[in-house]
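Example 3.
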Amino acid sequence: MGSEGLTKTKRNNKEKNKEEIIYDAIIIGGGPAGLTAGIYLSRARMNTLLIEKALPGGQAILTEIIENYPGFPHGIAGPELMQKMEEQAVRFGLKIEYGEAAEVRIKESKEDKVKMVKINNKEYKTLAIILASGAEASKLEVPGEEELRGRGVSYCATCDAPFFKHQKIVVVGGGDTAIEEALYLTKFVWEVTIIHRRDRLRATKILQERVFANKKINFTWDSVVTKILGSEKVEGILIKNKRTGEEKEISCQGVFVFVGNVPNSKLLNELIKLDKRGYILTDDNMMTSQEGIYACGDVRKKILRQVVTACGEGATAAFAAQKYIEELKGVSYK
Ligand code: NAP
């Protein structure tokens, strides 16, 4: 064989080897659910890749202090907890790649169980997928919101609070996030007005006790924001009372919006079953309607969205995926 032929064969082998890497599992999303799945799969010695589009940690890294994760009697800072989870997963051998998963394909034939995930224009093959892509802040969808985003409109107090020192701001929403973030904002701002569409809060009672005791916080009940006012930056909001229909302007320099979340499930919406709000439906083992594809954490339909539930689901999804992979490889322990 001439040297050209040899090079060609080498190249072919190289390309073939490259093609032949089939991960046991690919986890999409590096929040508490994804990292926990990563810890479990790595300890089970499954060849696992975790894909994260930004920093590992998910929404929890935006939380100043997490008080209800067991084991930390005085709470733990969100970024610290998430950094520890990442460190733990990497210590057991989890590989993390940064980029956004752009496409997921499954094979047409039922016999071929290999799935494909496209990230950063590269295609990765895997036997199982765990979707732990979380959720992101819902918008108010009112005039002025998009135009003034980053110029007084914010969805993250821990990121933006220092820009509003000694100013007057409003917080929209009445859930755990709105109340926690309003309390955090009082360390920086002069006054917080919480605008809520009902006459009572949805947030956990302990947070309600704190918010009602805080002298910097006042409430406007039964009201919705209809417009955010300002040209270069936020100057105020227009609200409407849902009971009386009365409209009024509130002057403020910042609008923090915490009106729930939308699930990041678009990537798989054509392959698996979702509820009408886009949350993924799974069975008790976190398996979606598609064999070998699992979902866990905030992207999944459930009643409680917490770090602790995300971790539990991540562990369950990993364990179920491990059994599935072992079954496919014919090495399952029965
Ligand atoms: P959430 O619990 O869904 O609450 C959203 C709030 O925004 C509700 O008060 C809702 O009003 C209001 N809202 C929704 N759409 C609105 C609109 N278009 N205009 C005005 N107001 C609107 O969302 P979240 O507070 O972001 O919490 C999400 C999940 O994370 C929850 O399961 C929560 O328990 C969890 N979480 C837990 C903690 C913690 O444990 N420390 C912290 C943060 C979040 P209604 O009440 O009238 O529906």
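Residues 68, 140, 172-178, 180, 197-198, 202, 224, 258-261, 304-306 surround NAP (CB under 6 Å). Confidence is low (pLDDT under 50) at residues 1-11.
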